[in-house]
Amino acid sequence: MKRKRQEEAEPIEEHDSGFVGPMTLFDTFPHNDTFAETRTLELLPNPTTENAEIYTFMHNRQDYGVIDMIDAKLSAKLRLAVTAGGAAPAGDQNICVNMAPLRYGWKTKAVYLNNQLITPQSSKENELEFTHDFLTTVPSEYSDDKDINLMIHDTPGRMDVITNLHHNTNATGNTNIGARQRYIKINGATVHQCIDKLDLLGRVKRYVPTSFDIKVVLTRLEKTKVLYGTAADCAPVDLRMANLKLTMPILKPNAQLSAAINDLMIQKGEECRYYKITHRYVAIPVPQNSRHIQHKDIFNAFPDITRFAVSINEAEIPPVITNSAEAYINLRQSLDRRHSEMPCTYAEYVSDYGMIVTDLSPNRDGFSQVLPNSTSGNLSIKLILPTTQPPHNS
Fold first, then answer.
1. What sign does the CA torsion over 27, 28, 32, 34 have?
2. How far apart are the first and last CA of the chain?
3. How many other C-beta atoms lie within 10 A of the C-beta of residue 389?
4. What SS3 class is residue 299?
5. 258-295 pLDDT, tens per residue?
6. Per DSSP, what are the bridge partners of residue 381?
7. Are 212 and 113 a contacting pair, CB within 8 Å?
8. Cβ atoms of residues 100 and 150 within 8 Å
9. Which branch of life, at top level (predicted)?
10. Local structure of 20: helix, strand or coil
11. Which alpha helices (H) appear in the chain, and where do they start and end?
12. CB count in 10 Å sphere of residue 232
């Protein structure tokens, strides 16, 4: 006679924080049942003028669904115009825009959810965005749509050449081909429809309920950093943004998902608990003839160095950099680009991207952990230059 198996009680799950009861999960359901429909949220700025210094986008709460903040897009019709009168500049002017003007063209960016500032304001917003893109994206990620968002880099080795942008071949004196490509898109009376992403939540991938009040404040970058060309040609001209618009998808969840959102985010009081990514920007000029540097700096060309080391509580963290080749290899390892593209070649890195990167994230495999999980300590950066310095930009 076969003995009937006794049904065992559902086991208690054990976690690091103690014991909890069995978890209750929603039944799985396909995507088309998760969201009943989708819409598009379009926010227009205040003011709506083409040349305002500060633009404010407002969304008033509504009971509909969730906003996909990851796919926020900023669009505008970009054109160059003479500041006095608004006429188009002459077609032979040595002037274009710097790359990705809708992404890097902001001095500060502030995002408020229910009147709570959830992204830090920084006067170096454009440089932080550029550094983040340089360290996280590969060329194939932006080369396909560079004609749309103007993510067109200056030509390595010729990044400082601002003459003859209106000439179409090297034989006539134009060697910065990247700037020339941007000039073709926006010059004289040419208007370019530009569309680009806009990071709103500090790269934290979260939905935001439409029941939130949302405010986005963008402060325009100085004209000298937006325009690229000779000073005489750039001085009387500015960049105009017509039909500026912030667009985000809205998803209408079904009743089950809406109930889960209300329970988790409203009843538990988690409306505005968002993770923040905070940057600290320190840039100090290097004194001439100095060898021992005790602060961080980012060079626009790789300097000849004798030693670069980062230490925590006086203990140096490997690797120690002694030349540009080691720095480039370390950058490749830090970015984990063993099987994908680097953002620049070694020659371009030396000539135009003198960026030394040190990875201070702890090793969490439990066996060969290098750094402790401490959040406090004395961080030091030591940079020793050769006794005799060759000419270079720093």
1. positive
2. 88
3. 15
4. coil
5. 666 666 655 555 544 554 555 565 655 666 666 655 54
6. 310
7. yes
8. yes
9. Eukaryota
10. strand
11. 31-34, 101-104, 125-136, 139-143, 146-149, 177-185, 223-226, 231-234, 255-261, 324-334, 346-352
12. 10
Pairwise CA distance, residues 318 & 316, whole Å: 6
List CB contacts of 96: < 8 A, sequence separation 6 or more. Answer: 165, 179, 180, 182, 183, 185, 186, 187, 227, 228, 229
DSSP labels, 220-288 = EPPHHHHEEE-HHHHTTEEEEEEEEEEEEEEEEE-HHHHHHHIIIIIITT-TT------------PPPT
**What number of H helices and E strands is found in the chain?**
11, 18
Euclidean distance between CA atoms 112 and 114, whole angstroms: 6
CA pair distance 368, 138, nearest whole angstrom: 30
Backbone angles phi, psi at 209, to 5 degrees: -65, 145
Q: How far is CA 43 from CA 47, 58, 180, 267, in A?
A: 12, 7, 33, 29
Tokens of 110: 């502030």
Measured CA to CA, the distance from residue 383 to residue 296 in angstroms comes to 8
The Cα 215–Cα 197 span in angstroms is 17
Q: Among 78, 40, 37, which Cα is nearest to 59's?
A: 40
Token pair of 215, please? 């405010």
State whether residue 96 is helix, strand or coil.
strand
Nearest to 195 by CA among 246, 153, 240, 152: 246
Tens digits of residue pLDDT in 198-233: 988 876 667 788 888 899 999 999 999 999 988 888
Confidence of residue 26 (pLDDT cuts 50, 70, 90): very low
Q: Which of 225-234, 248-257, 344-353, 364-373 has the weakest average pLDDT?
A: 364-373
Cα–Cα distances (Å) from 269 to 24, 29, 205, 260, 263, in that order, read 21, 27, 19, 13, 9
Which amino acid makes up residue 153?
H
Sign of the C-alpha dihedral computed for residues 78, 84, 86 and 87 taken in this order = negative
